[in-house]
Amino acid sequence: AATQPSTNWHLRENAREHHTSKFSSEELIVRRGQPFTITFNGTERPEQNLIFIAETGPKPSKATKTLATFDISSTASKEGWSAVVQSTSSNSVSISISSPHNAVIGRYRLSVQKGSSSPASLGTFVLLFNPWSSGDDVFMPNKAECEEYVLEEFGIIFAGNKNHISSFGWNFGQFQGDILNICLSIMDRSLYYRQDPVTDVSHRHDPRYLGRVLSAMVNANDDQGVVLGNWSGKYEGGKNPSSWTGSGEILQSWKKSGFKPVKYGQCWVFAAVLTTVLRCLGIPTRTITNFSSAHDADGNLRVDEYYDADGNHLERGSDSVWNFHVWNESWFTRNDLGPSYSGWQVLDATPQEQSGGIYQCGPASRYAIKEGEVDLDYDGTFVFAEVNADCMYWNYDSATGKKNLIFSKSTEIGASISTKAVGRDDRVDVTSDYKYEEGSAKERDIFKKARKKLGLEDKFDPTAPKLEEIEQKPDISGKFKVAGSLEVGKDLNLLLVLENLQSDAKTVNVNMTAWSTLYTRRRVNQIWKDSLSVTLAPKEEKQFPIKIKYPEYQQQLTTDKTIQVTALCHVEDGIQVLVERNIALDNPAIDIQVLGEAKVNKEVVVEVAFTNPINMEVKDCVLQVEGSDLLQGILELRIPPLKASETSSTKFKLVPSEAGPKHLLVNFSCDKFADIKTFKMVNVIN
């Protein structure tokens, strides 16, 4: 066998050219469609008859573009792989190797053959997508967007509800430790790979294909993927979904456990992990939050909600409206659909409905969603409904099985669609990229177009409704107003405002309930119920104060800190009116101070302060800290119990490993408050 040549991969220079410097790897990591340089020795007069072999996957072949053999040429090839001599010395040669723009991505084995001798291995390297290169399907012309959507390890995820948007930080950590290797293992554990490894690997040049495969692999359904979803409100045997602060811990746990699904996730966890994996592989990706997000299980672009006579929201039917839902957008061309459908594509790794027999969703072109082109690949109908479905509210009598329409709303679903700004820690509203203005003629036209494409015009035509779908005009209107602050630990003060719309007096019987819910509006515990009777004079408006005290709701609250308040108003000789409000409570604040300047490889002290806002002791206090390039892994600190109004101050040390703006994420929990999160930007200098 040929003597093993020793290879200099020029790791630092190649990484700088290929925007891969953030990976901490001893292996060469480069992007496709762009030359990289290697030097190796053990060849005399090297530029003569050298043949290079680059291969990937289990059964490399030229037919599947997983094997390339190429010799020395004078210039780089536009089409295939090529090698150009940079310089030679008596016993070594420097070669510039180029891969095609549409090369399969993954780990390659590189060897060289001289004349008729057997090939000698030069080692391995990893090839990724290249958003900086104009020939790549993921090319993103705006460099600041490449920095944000591929290289940024910190993100902000929006949550809460449309009346009250909140946000928290997330550490994507795509360049940390072993994450790249874990991402490569995810691809090799998919159902597609298990069924037909050769074909699967040959498709890995295509971001559409990988986006779809990875949306399936990030959830545990079907394939023992990364994260197991749990929307029960009970999280024994795993971590509460709201306690994670980054993807690294989740991906590392998956690998350490021998690839057993990590417990537990909800939508933002699936979206954040998918962001990490796609950014790691070089596909520009971001998280998107849709408020009042519809889960239309039966594909009729309509969500049916049921209530009993007491105003309790019933778990009937499989449709639902979530306070918010988080998915992903990835940036690539859609050669299958045409140029106008390129750009941002929706992917969703949360297991909601099956597509092609497994829990995967997308890529759906965002432009196609806006234009109502719901028949285009993939899963356009489901995504269109998430932002556009009409809402139908029914009163259901379980004794008789009768249902009556209380009212319908076409402007309820898909509000304040949000993502993090490029280069800033701000929210950007992208609702107008998903739909035309709510209530406009154009928006209704698109909705009709989508219904027509799905063959739905006959089933529910608003101009010719079935008998039980006739919507009558109500005699009164109602709303809940918030009076005072919405904070965990404080009493909840609301006003029920009722107004008589008619010119004669109306008597109204009101049944009210308050339930703690998950962010999906699934009811968990009843907190409070009450009823009142009132006569409203003609055109009169009356306000009824409602107080739910902290001790009443404290035990019942879920870690989502959401409460649904409902008033079902029975108007004598009139139709029922449903008044509903979803309330998201804020956690108390937590404060981070960096004491002194943060410098590379120098210790800096950070102080975290929390004041107990309630008039009882809090115990089991734990502080969790993470941040890429600021500390390795996750720091967990136990804090002694805090009496009423007492402040705890905790200090710890960081040793930053890289200069630039970095983000420190803090999560504080105790027996009365779950997952109080905050983050701080730390500017690290050399």
From TrEMBL:
Pfam families membership: Transglut_C (PF00927), Transglut_core (PF01841), Transglut_N (PF00868)
Domain Transglutaminase-like: 259-351
Signal peptide: none
Co-factor: note: Binds 1 Ca(2+) ion per subunit.
Lineage of source species: Eukaryota, Metazoa, Chordata, Craniata, Vertebrata
Keyword list, A-Z: Acyltransferase, Calcium, Metal-binding, Transferase
Cofactor (UniProt): Ca(2+)
Gene3D superfamilies: Immunoglobulins, Transglutaminase-like
Protein's UniProt name: protein-glutamine gamma-glutamyltransferase
Residues annotated as the enzyme's active site: C267, H325, D348
UniProt xrefs under InterPro entries: Ig-like_fold (IPR013783), Ig_E-set (IPR014756), Papain-like_cys_pep_sf (IPR038765), Transglutaminase (IPR050779), Transglutaminase-like (IPR002931), Transglutaminase-like_sf (IPR036985), Transglutaminase_animal (IPR023608), Transglutaminase_AS (IPR013808)
Example of a GO MF term: protein-glutamine gamma-glutamyltransferase activity
Enzyme Commission number(s): 2.3.2.13
Family: Belongs to the transglutaminase superfamily. Transglutaminase family.
Listed SMART domains: TGc
Keyword match Metal-binding: yes
Positions of Ca(2+) binding: N388, D390, E438, E443
Domain of life, per lineage: Eukaryota
Catalytic activity: L-glutaminyl-[protein] + L-lysyl-[protein] = [protein]-L-lysyl-N(6)-5-L-glutamyl-[protein] + NH4(+)
Annotated source species: Hylia prasina
